[in-house]
């Protein structure tokens, strides 16, 4: 099959390598506004061919398309792909604004081709095992879930300017993981954000963004979610999930690459070296995610993360953003009512 790839930034470049390594992919048709980014991909990947625009990519007759462009253009690219009836993988979030996301949800419901939204932790073996432990009942009733995403360094300023803020572009992975693993929906949130006073104002304060954030989630079956995020975890990339039930508890992400330094005398774990970024911590998940997408393109399986499903995470992010601004708990129903009037 021939897969189109729109956007060749940090994650797009990783996706290009991943797609090219899949046996079912014969050609990867790529495009990026920065021609040098496309040339870098075609220079190292024999299966890759560059075109000048998303329109040219869709005109090339691809079987499926992967959208890895900036958040603020997700909606227009997804709409264009759906109009062509092309099966589409779109990196989170669905769109740059909740209004656009709602419109994409309506379009996807009417489209002839399926959509898969990118949440790679659903494909990480440890997260899958945690979900299985919840589903098989071995944990008993789940009462607490802790999810962590600590980035070692912020993304580029240009990305932050259009990302929608830390709750929409970073914490969403945790919100989705908590929903997916527990099988519960977010009912209400209470979120706080903090900004390093030494951080450039143009990167954060000018956009109402934060360098660190924490969110408490109240889930539909009574569990409590605790989400921690930062863009400045210099020791490394820390992605973890703990699920605590009344009879047992499990954790994902407790491997030798965990970027923590123990202070207990005589304890040498984790052995290290620490994970440095998402490309190494989640490499296996990215491969499984795009291999699954190719099966969706082939019509072998349904999308494992539809736009409808991803909207549950989007609403949680909207509630967290509003909560941090107004300093109060916010229900998902409230943000839905505001958006859908």
UniProtKB/TrEMBL annotation:
Coiled coil: none annotated. Residues 1-119 form the Gfo/Idh/MocA-like oxidoreductase N-terminal domain. One of its GO terms (molecular function) is oxidoreductase activity. Residues 127-245 form the GFO/IDH/MocA-like oxidoreductase domain. The keyword Ion transport does not apply. Keywords: NAD, Oxidoreductase. It comes from the Bacteria. The keyword Membrane does not apply. Pfam families: GFO_IDH_MocA (PF01408), GFO_IDH_MocA_C3 (PF22725). PANTHER family: BINDING ROSSMANN FOLD OXIDOREDUCTASE, PUTATIVE (AFU_ORTHOLOGUE AFUA_2G10240)-RELATED, NAD(P)-BINDING ROSSMANN-FOLD SUPERFAMILY PROTEIN-RELATED. Belongs to the Gfo/Idh/MocA family. This is Dehydrogenase. It comes from Janibacter melonis.
């Amino acid at each position: 099959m021939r897969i189109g790839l729109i956007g060749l930034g940090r994650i797009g470049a990783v996706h290009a390598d991943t797609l090219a390594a899949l046996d079912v992919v014969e050609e990867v048709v790529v495009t990026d506004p920065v021609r040098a980014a496309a040339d870098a991909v075609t220079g190292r990947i024999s299966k890759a061919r560059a075109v000048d625009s998303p329109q040219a990519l869709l005109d090339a007759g691809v079987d499926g398309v992967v959208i890895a462009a900036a958040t603020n253009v997700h909606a227009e690219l997804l709409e264009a792909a759906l109009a062509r009836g092309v099966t589409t993988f779109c990196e989170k979030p669905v769109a740059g604004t909740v209004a656009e996301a709602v419109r994409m949800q309506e379009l996807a419901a009417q489209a002839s081709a399926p959509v898969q939204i990118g949440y790679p932790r659903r494909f990480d073996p440890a997260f899958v095992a945690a979900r299985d432990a919840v589903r098989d009942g071995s944990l008993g009733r789940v009462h607490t879930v802790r999810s962590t995403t600590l980035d070692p360094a912020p993304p580029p300023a240009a990305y932050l300017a259009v990302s929608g803020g830390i709750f929409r572009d970073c914490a969403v992975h945790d919100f989705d993981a908590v929903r997916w693993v527990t099988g519960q929906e977010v009912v209400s949130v209470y979120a706080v954000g903090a900004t390093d006073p030494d951080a450039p104002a143009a990167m954060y304060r000018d956009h109402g963004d934060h360098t660190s954030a924490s969110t408490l989630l109240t889930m539909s079956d009574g569990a409590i979610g605790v989400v921690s995020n930062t863009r400045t975890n210099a020791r490394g990339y820390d992605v973890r999930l703990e699920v605590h039930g009344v009879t047992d508890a499990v954790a994902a992400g407790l491997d030798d690459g965990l970027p923590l330094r123990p202070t207990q005398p005589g304890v040498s774990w984790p052995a290290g070296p620490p994970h440095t970024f998402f490309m190494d911590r989640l490499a296996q998940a990215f491969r499984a995610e795009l291999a699954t997408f190719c099966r969706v393109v082939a019509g072998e399986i349904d999308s494992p993360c539809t736009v409808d499903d991803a909207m549950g995470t989007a609403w949680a992010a909207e509630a967290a953003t509003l909560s941090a601004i107004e300093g109060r708990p916010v229900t998902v129903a409230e943000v839905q009512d505001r958006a859908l009037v």
